[in-house]
Amino acid sequence: MAKAIMIQGTMSNVGKSLLAGAFCRIFAQDGYKVAPFKSQNMALNSFITKEGLEMGRAQVMQAQAAGIEPSVLMNPILLKPTSDVGSQVIVNGKVLGNMKAREYYTHKKELIPHIMSAYRRLEEKYDIIVLEGAGSPAEINLKSQDIVNMGMAKLAKSPVILAGDIDRGGVFAQLAGTMMLLEPQEQELVKGLIVNKFRGEREILAPGLTMMEEISKRPVLGVVPYMHLDIDDEDSLSQRLDQNMAGGKIDIAVIRFPRISNFTDFNFLSSIKGVSVRYVSCVSQLKNPDILFLPGTKNTMGDLQWLRECGLEAQIKKFASRGGVIFGICGGYQMLGEEIKDPVNAEHGGSMAGIGLLPAVTVFEQEKATTQTKGYFSKVDGALSGLSGVFIEGYEIHMGKTMLQAEQGLVHFTETNGQEVSQMEGCQRGNVYGSYLHGIFDGEQAVQKLLEGLCKVKGISIGDIKPISQQEYRENQYDLLAQGVRENVEMDKIYEILERGI
């Protein structure tokens, strides 16, 4: 059976996901078959597997770092917040339903058999499982129902490495306080500490590390520097969303909805030299981009209402009237249509007018579409006509169906979940476009044609603006992540902890 090691953190956003990804990469580089695992993930960035099942994006990143195909076994429970007090609950890649926090809290231990079934199947196939916790294991009001931190460590019989974030300050209080609030048997599971996101000279930190070891009775296994890497982030805590300054030859603006989802759709674009991707949450930030994206959202109707109340809808319409290029993806595509209807109360119930820039009507249904899809752009009009015929692939995650008021779609799907199809999807009118396909601009050719079209509209030469190989770029980022951790963590002691277990 596989050996296990678990990364837990003193709070959210201490870097657990990236540390787990680094260990996945390191173990794989050292010749082991390794897989990630997170029993319960809460995030609006998700992914569809080749089987058409939905899982958290962080475990996809970790699987890629390990060099393996992402599987829903790596994230059996995914919570996608729909409001401040409720989430859509996804179990084994399929929607179980929407639940308020209190309702889920009282039922989540019933999901342990699903969690352990997934974990055991991974355990039979791999040499090492790298588990990731969530938030903090010291949330004393939640510990009795814990299935993702110490509760999961006990079930998996996994030793724990506790990480703290020094970049935010107070790392010693984080680590010492967390250890103090753990039960004695939980403290026994913690085999070492990691200080993450360090900027400065380690010699100055040394006295504090010594005191921390004396207080916690645990070794500090490493001080990992703050690394400037371009790797998919887990959720909306991502610093990418704070980027709102234009600085590139091509200026791309993305509406930052309150419940924005799958903003990883724009990560590849942001990696290109000469292209700036910025996130807009108020009228003053919009300005005059070369293209405006309306991204996915977990609450289309709620975020459309927000768009109206903050004045951005009116500005989007003005931008379109001037010939501005607009592209909606998933929920953003739904908003751009004439109307959104919700007869099944998937979100708010009733109906509301869309922005009205595309000849389409969306009707929500109970069944959720989750597919991996391949195809090509059909005949594209307007500023992005160069995309015509270009191959695309990605995935769909949405609750509604969108019906066109015109014949011409935007893309032609040829394969969904491995099955041959012939299906038109998406919509266009002038310089306004929409599609359900996440990852539609993850391909090098599609991005190249997109940028060429935007440069032509702007009247400039594309020059040296050129997408690199996404696969090569991503693999390089994972190698840099692994190198940064390998050089600053005592990996020999990590292997000793793996061997000893608990």
UniProtKB/TrEMBL annotation:
The active site is at 330 (nucleophile), 438. Residues 5-227 form the CobQ/CobB/MinD/ParA nucleotide binding domain. GO terms for biological process: cobalamin biosynthetic process. Residues 251-445 form the CobB/CobQ-like glutamine amidotransferase domain. The keyword Electron transport does not apply. Pfam families: CbiA (PF01656), GATase_3 (PF07685). Pathway: Cofactor biosynthesis; adenosylcobalamin biosynthesis. It comes from the Bacteria. InterPro entries: Class_I_gatase-like, CobQ/CobB/MinD/ParA_Nub-bd_dom, CobQ_GATase1, CobQ_N, CobQ_synth, GATase_3, P-loop_NTPase. The keyword Iron-sulfur does not apply. GO terms for molecular function: ABC-type vitamin B12 transporter activity; catalytic activity. Keywords: Cobalamin biosynthesis, Glutamine amidotransferase. Catalyzes amidations at positions B, D, E, and G on adenosylcobyrinic A,C-diamide. NH(2) groups are provided by glutamine, and one molecule of ATP is hydrogenolyzed for each amidation. Belongs to the CobB/CobQ family. CobQ subfamily. This is Cobyric acid synthase. It comes from Youxingia wuxianensis. The gene is cobQ.
